[in-house]
Sequence to fold (860 residues):
Amino acid sequence: MMIMRTDSTVGIAGYGAYIPMNRLKASEVNRVWGGFGAPIEEKSVVAMDEDAVTIAVECARYAVNRADIRPEEIGAIYVGTESKPYAVKPCGTIVAEAIGATPNVTAADYEFACKAGTEAFQTCIGLVSSGMVKYAMAIGADTAQGRPADALEYTAACGGAAYIFGLRSDRTLAYLEGSWSYVTDTPDFWRRGREMYPRHGNRFTGKPAYFQHVVGAAKGLMGELGYEAGDFAYAVFHQPNVKFPIKVAKTLGFGMDSIKPGLVVPTVGNTYAGSTPLGLAATLDVAEPGDRILAVSYGSGAGSDAFSFVVQDAITNGRDIDPPVSAFITRKRYVDYSEYLKLRGQILR
Amino acid sequence: MRKVAVSGVGLTGIREHWGKSLRDLFEEAALKAFEDAGTDDIDALYVSNMGAANLQRQLNLGAMMADALGKRGIDALRVEAASASGGVAFHEGVKAVASGLCDSVLVGGVEKMSDGLPDEVTASLAMAEDQEYTAYTGITKMGMNALIHRHYMERFGVGAEEIAMFAVRGHEHARGCPHAQYPFKISVDRILSSPMEADPIHMLECAGIGDGAAAVLLRPAGESGDCVEVASTAVASGHYYLTERPDILTFEAVRGAAARALEYAGLSHGDIDLVEVHDDTTITGVLALEDLGFVDKGKGATYVSEGLTARDGELPTNTFGGLKARGNPVGATGLYQVAEVALQLRGQAGPCQVEGAEVGLAQSVGGLGSTCAVTILRRR
Amino acid sequence: MSVPRYWREIRYRYRLIGERCADCGALFFPRRGACPQCGSKNLEECKLSERGTVASWTVIRNPPRDYGKYSPYVVALVELDDGVRVLSQVVDVEPDEMKTGMRVEATFRRVKEDGSSGLIEYGYKFRPIIG
Fold:
């Protein structure tokens, strides 16, 4: 496969992130299930009145604010999620209405496990660079379902981020040099239609799944662009736990300093389709003009999308209009396991 | 317009009447009113009710109750103005007789709140408000009151205890009242230690859920030797949205109806010997005294807690217990108030009697003061 | 729950859109057929402020049907920065943290749903300002 490059350069006009307030400590999960050790410290949990749609709307609103555009100028809105409140009825239309982009807009939802958000990036980039739309918004948002007593219960979290793509201009926050998608049929983690919780292949989710695809996409992109790890100021990898992104960073030659700003999983958890988008947002919150950022997502099933962004001057003033990801991370309220179950709709009134 | 007299009065007790239906209760009150009046000959029937459409899925109460009373063929309809239904229905009945269109009118109110589960009743009471923008927030009637209760405390520096005294006074007056739901004393400590209903309102500051029916027979004054005459009735609508009131502690509908009623009756505040006000929670009782014009804004709670509303006080208020202690079967409440004033003026209030009562005022409120009916009765 | 009733109010609820009277300048919410101030029919849609101050508040502990699962929740009278007052839930705050005068901003939340197979109704609520 060839690197995905556009004829007209496309960039991020605006971005927005959102993390719900509640937190469940991994130690609390251990208290109930008798486990020990933990892949992260704590994860975010939605309030009773939040879901993937409300998270997507929050992200979208912040993104429109940072982009400083009229919502009517957005020609496409895609929401990538695996926790759609409606199996049939797009989150995208609700987001479009909530930000005032209707009716002259196309909207839909994407599913590709944790890479549904960045999947939408690819489409938005294509639509904008072809001239079909002026601005296109891609959102990754999830309220991931963790099976009780399963390893993923520690980490399945809630949150997301939205990106508005437009043709590169002086107002662009970061422009895209190219992207690369690496996809195979690898069933490492799935959820059947009427099931509440996913199933996974345990250790199979490592080497043949996460690492194969993240490295495949990253090496593909970096190779074609002629870059090495040292050419990047920052790298953001999909973060299902703390170990995987650190390990893959090392494999690709990235040091801890370059992945640290984007590594939100220890205190947020894995926001699934929101994971890489959220990590990228946290990175953009601190990046300087001229910084090159590698972002590589991973979605089970399986695939990775890799992107190389270069930050522009506009970021310095452009980002402060909205709260940074760190403001959402420090805004927290702890819940115990019983309240967590209530919030997860598992105890019916 | 000719003068109208209250010829007959009939009340059921207020409680959970598990064995009685809407119709059963209505019949009971109506028959008592007929008996008291010495006649059951009526031209028209006004039925006041708020919750039947939701709780009993029953409409067309005018025709239903006309049939129940064996009065097929007469002019009959239901009047609904949320919790002011009773007062507004009375106003309509008075108009019918005063105008000469009718010579004998029964106005009866009935409510069967215990037929609904608590959350259904709560939803029912919130139906007075805009469903799309007010009720949609999940606020309850008590919650609406709570917003103004808090604001009152913050603006005037009045404490929770002073406002709670409104309920204490009501309960003092309910002792010995044969139809009261809670005819016993209650202390302010008990009230303030009861669970919060909608902060800062405590549960025991709120009128309870009860069933009841009250009926009044109206005829032209002078015809039957009745001693209670309608001096005036007035209904006013107010801001439908609390959010649009210039002052959220002033109910323009109450001020408007009171002014009109007093003017029409040719009376002033000093002429009023007793008042029956709409205390669905303590704060609305307090604000009633202020908006009716008896007490300055902000001074109502103190006025009540200092005992000035006792039966032998300056302004006897809620002489049979008011909504809190006598009860509040919503659509019927306005008629309980009118009937109670009538009983006072007749000297038939028993242990609840206010000595020498000549003129009484009843205030019935719908929603959070979006409608108000004021009735003034006078001894002939 | 009625689909048309919900659908009619969507844009006003999702985006806090009120009305302005072209004659007397009054700004109001929800929209009506006539200006509540001067009665004029000369009205145009107007987006309201998304930030405001809590003027009074309560905690609903005995909710009406359909709101049970969210109980207890705060409902407040919010005075928006453009002067319009709205009634709304306030979320992401503990009841004992509520204060008159608190600064809040609009957020988008679930309001209620029609069981597990019916419509989900979304709308505005307010929360303490983030960041």
In short: The longest helix of chain B spans residues 330-346. Chain B touches chain C at residues 118-120, 122-123, 126, 130, 132-140, 142-143, 146-148, 150-151, 154, 195-201, 239, 241-244, 248 (CB under 8 Å).
